[in-house]
Amino acid sequence: MRTREIKKAKFFYTLMCLAGFLIILLPVGIANLYFGYVLKDSPCTLCWGQREAMIFIGVMAFFIVRYGMKARYLAMILIMAGFGLWQSFAHFGIHAHRDLDQGFGLAIFGIHTYFWAEVVFWAVVLILGIIFLFAPKFSAFEDELDGESIRKLSKPALYAFMISAFIVASNVFQAFVSTGIPPYYGQGDPVRFTLNPKYIIWSDSGYKKHWNSISFLGKRDVKAPDYAFAPASQKLGVKFDNDSNNAPLNIDENVQIASKKELEFSKPINSLDFIRGEFVASSKWEVFFMDENFKVTSNFEIDPYFSATVDPIIGVIPFMDDKFMLMGSNKTLLRFAKNPNADEALQYADFVRGNDKFEGQGKGLGRGRIDTVRAKFHHIASMTTDGKYAYLATVPNNKDHKKFVISKVMLSDRTLSGEFTPSANLKDGKTLGDLYVTSMTYKDGLIYALSKNHNVIAVIDPKAEEVIKTIAFPSEIKNARSIFFKDGVMNILSYQDGKNTLFTLN
To answer: For residue 2, what are the contacts with CB-CB under 8 A and spacing of at least 6?
Structure first.
């Protein structure tokens, strides 16, 4: 029995040696010797990180072969595999959204090297599991050592060690030539590998950028936008004011308050519009339908986490002849309809409350996501429609205070049709990102974009893609949340002093 277990231990070491040799010979060796010296491929910073992780895994396998099976060596293999998976996933994630055949660096069988790294690290986990299927009893590892501190290597194992050492040394040489010594640590977009010093670039720019801010989310570390029910000025780094003189645009027209009315409504209203003869309001994940006296006639609360996660609702627009569309600040939507005889069991999926009177499941209904390009890393806080297209406007965030993008989405298929930043006559040093557009409405071919910051309305021609007029509204309106026209009259809803106040403007 003991002899059989020792044979199994030797076979285990043979498999471990083979695995360590293959990870260094194939992905690392081919990348270095063929891609590097023949095809002149230079790894980027993340590529070097993934290659180093593969080398560490191979070396740890050799440590097991040389010094015996020890928990710390096995632990390091798993740690480096996990670290490598994280690096390759982060690398792949940068390019995953790109169009067909777009990518970075060399492609093997149509797949770029950064994705092959993901395959290699998963293979390490899988193969390690397979090797342990052939493992003996753990006491056999001690018996196989026979009291020695190191194991004797067979000739094949010795050759594997020597070839691997050469490949590792060659990688060190390539890294030194193309990358340099600390603090130089590589390039995000490396030039072709060369031995000509005229074309060699040693850069530490990425190193400096990495220490500016540390976040596991990277570019996606964007704080939630400002809602009526959740002010976010401090988190976003945006200081709101109600002085239109501070707006990035010159004022063309002023409107005055004709009347105001405090609505008897218990929750902060985030959006309000007048659609098909009734008021439609939203607060977080709730939607309320009200008559012209603002008495609630029906309402519902969505399940924000079913299927496609919906961030707090920023607007509701008419959709098709008798349906509606609500939008979350994360550009996720729900097409819904009223039905007093709704199948509450079927509609349970979409609604926490109101599934007996509203439908989110059925023909022409359901959830979806809007994929944008210029607005990808920005939330939206407003939406309007001309009947054919929906228009969404970004708001500044803690990562970017300058960008302002309007996304144009065809309602029939909910697919992006275009994006633009309106041209405008801006003050020196200002951008449209100085605005904070919380609501938009469409009238007579123009979009009226309401900015709670600086108390202005940018009137935008979506066909010409330009701001044609800037309207200032009184500073008495402290927290403008919604703009809409009713009977040709402009109305602005503000949530201030703990109340929802509706201002009618002349």
So the answer is: 140, 143
| DSSP-derived pairing of the beta strands 366-369 and 456-461 | unpaired
With tokens 């277990």, the residue in question is 5
Q: How far is CA 37 from CA 25, 34, 113, 171, 321, in A?
A: 15, 6, 16, 11, 64
End-to-end CA distance of the chain: 97
For residue 499, the cross-strand partners are 496
Rounded distance, CA 376 to CA 408, Å?
13
Q: In 3-state terms, what secondary structure has residue 481?
A: strand
Give alpha helix (H) positions in 109-213.
113-133, 138-145, 155-178, 205-210
How far is C-alpha 67 from the geometric centre of its chain's CA atoms?
Answer: 45
φ/ψ of 143, rounded to 5, equals -65, -40
Q: What would you report as the CA-atom Rg of the chain, rounded to the nearest whole angstrom?
A: 31
Residue with tokens 């996660």: 309
Residue closest to 255 by CA, chosen among 457, 10, 12, 487? 457
Nearby residues of 241 by Cβ (< 8 Å), 6 or more positions away? 453, 454
Residue length, the chain?
A: 506
Is the backbone of residue 339 left (phi > 0), alpha (psi -120 to 50) or beta? beta
Which amino acid is residue 505, in one-letter code?
L
- Residues contacting residue 443 through CB under 8 Å, at least 6 positions apart: 485
The dihedral formed by the CA atoms of 62, 65, 70 and 75, expressed in degrees to the nearest 10: 30
User: CA-CA-CA-CA torsion for 206, 207, 209, 213, nearest 10 degrees?
Assistant: 140
The residues, any chain, with a CB within 8 Å of residue 117's CB and separated by 6 or more, are 27, 47, 50, 54, 84, 87, 88, 91
Gap between the Cα atoms of 164 and 359, Å rounded: 64
Per-residue pLDDT tens, the chain, 506 aa: give them: 678 899 999 999 999 999 999 999 999 999 999 999 999 999 998 899 999 999 999 999 999 999 999 999 999 999 999 999 999 988 888 887 777 777 877 888 888 888 899 999 999 999 999 999 989 998 899 888 888 889 999 999 999 999 999 999 999 999 999 999 988 888 888 999 999 999 999 988 766 666 566 666 777 889 999 999 999 999 999 999 999 999 999 999 999 999 999 999 999 999 999 999 999 999 999 999 999 999 999 999 999 999 999 999 999 999 999 999 999 999 999 999 999 999 999 999 999 999 999 999 999 999 999 999 999 999 999 999 999 999 999 999 999 999 999 999 999 999 999 999 999 999 999 999 999 999 999 999 999 999 999 999 999 999 999 999 999 999 999 999 999 999 999 999 999 999 999 999 98
For 280, other C-beta atoms within 10 Å of its C-beta total 21
Which amino acid type is present at position 139?
A: S
